[in-house]
Amino acid sequence: MVDVSETVEILPKEASAKVKKSKGDFVIGIPKEIDSQEKRVLLTPEAVRLLTNNGLKVVVETEAGKKSKFEDKDYSDAGAKVVYSAKEAFESEVILKVEPPTIEEIEFMQPGSCLISALQLGRQSADYIHALNSKRITAVSFENLEDKVGGMPVVRAMSEIAGSTVMLVASEYLSSVNDGKGLILGGVTGVPPTQVVIIGAGTVAEYAARTALGLGANIKVFDNHIYKLRRIKQLLGQQVFTSTIDNITLAQALKEADVVIGALRAEKGRNKIVVTEEMVAAMMPGSIIIDVSIDQGGCIETAEMTSHSEPTFKKHEIIHYCVPNIASRVSRTASVALSNIFTPILLQMADLKGAEEMIFNYKWFMKGVYTYRGSLTNAHLARKFAMTHKELQLLLAARY
Question: Do you know which PANTHER family this protein is assigned to (predicted)?
């Protein structure tokens, strides 16, 4: 005869043996972006298939990928669970978003979960940080993530896309159809090429210059760092006009320019204005200014942030295009690029059983963390919002 008390005792022991978290317990949530200007998604169906094949669970809110031409069926076929409310997607262990969540969306999140999204410093407030900390959420800013060699993969990828795209935008607005100067971007036999001025010599500038040169335009590149000017000449593989930013040379170049690209990246806080309103007023009517750095304050005095629905305005007869998320114009390309970055990170995170171990093991991942278990850990944010912060490494040391 079997003793019932022994049977009852065995069952809890078997259950307790499964306390260690497996990959199947690691749930990734992809909520739909609610900002009408944001069309990107951080994981493609192909990436979801790879993750689910490796034992991870992925929850996708319905129509999350629709603006990038990824259908719910694509995600479902790849092994994701498609849900019909944002709350269900936000209840995951790791949430992936392009735009940072709203205060209302943060309320849906589980205490102690991990958020990976853009930070978009210029749009944030102390209330946003307090909302994250009240839920003890570990928040990771993907624009501050580094790779193993010290690069910034998300910034680099989006800058490459933005740099290539701005010249196509310029081509659109130079045409007569859009009330531009009626010029082709580049040149044809017997017709002088268009003149392009690029302010900045980083990744955006490099890819804008490649595209402009490929189309046959003349370019002039300005930057205050000689090493950046030297590097861009080497990367382009040909002699191009380069100059440090001085008012006389820059003002003369702007007077002759058909297209001006503002591509200076802020080094400490807000960008420095290098193109004054007086310089803009002296430009040829119908020319176009595209300020790619507008999300960091811009480097052109007359620039004001616009949107994809109303992308341009005119000032001093100069067309201004100042949309902050240019990469969203080519959302499918941008989504694939982002997905290629985050898929291996998520696989690593699952192997280590969570975001906390990722922070502890990888300094390049730690660079993106700005809130951790109820504490603000980013000194720049603390100064901006007059809040106290704690050093992340000290918090980790206390836990381990």
Answer: ALANINE DEHYDROGENASE
31 Cβ contact partners less than 8 Å away, ≥ 6 residues apart: 61, 64, 86, 89, 90, 95, 97, 101, 105
Host domain of residue 121: 27-144+331-398
Angstrom distances, CA of residue 280 to CA of 217, 251, 253: 21, 9, 11
pTM summary value: 0.86
Neighbours of 165 (CB within 10 A): 23
Q: Given this model, what pLDDT does residue 270 score?
A: 58
| Count of other CB atoms within 10 angstroms of residue 127 | 11
DSSP conformation letters of 338-383 = HHHHHHHHHHHHHHTTSHHHHHHH-HHHHTTEEEETTEE--HHHHH
In a domain, 150, yes or no: no
In the chain, which residues have pLDDT < 50?
1-20
**219 with 140, same domain?**
no
pLDDT of residue 22: 56
Strand locations in the chain (E) = 27-30, 57-61, 81-83, 94-96, 114-117, 138-141, 195-199, 218-222, 241-243, 259-262, 288-291, 312-315, 318-321, 369-372, 375-376
- CATH number of the domain where residue 79 is located: 3.40.50.720
Starting at the edge strand found earlier in the chain, the sheet holding 27-30 runs 81-83, 57-61, 27-30, 94-96, 114-117, 138-141, 369-372, 375-376
What per-residue confidence (pLDDT) applies to 147?
Answer: 86
Q: Give the Å distances, CA to CA, from 23 to 53, 77, 185, 346, 359.
A: 11, 20, 51, 11, 18
pLDDT at site 299: 93
DSSP state of 300: B
207 in Cβ contact with 228 (< 8 Å)? no
Residues 340 and 320 placed together within one structural domain of the fold: no
Does one domain contain both 186 and 294? yes
Query: At residue 387, what are phi and psi to the nearest 5 degrees?
Result: -115, 160
Residues 57 and 181 occupy one common structural domain: no
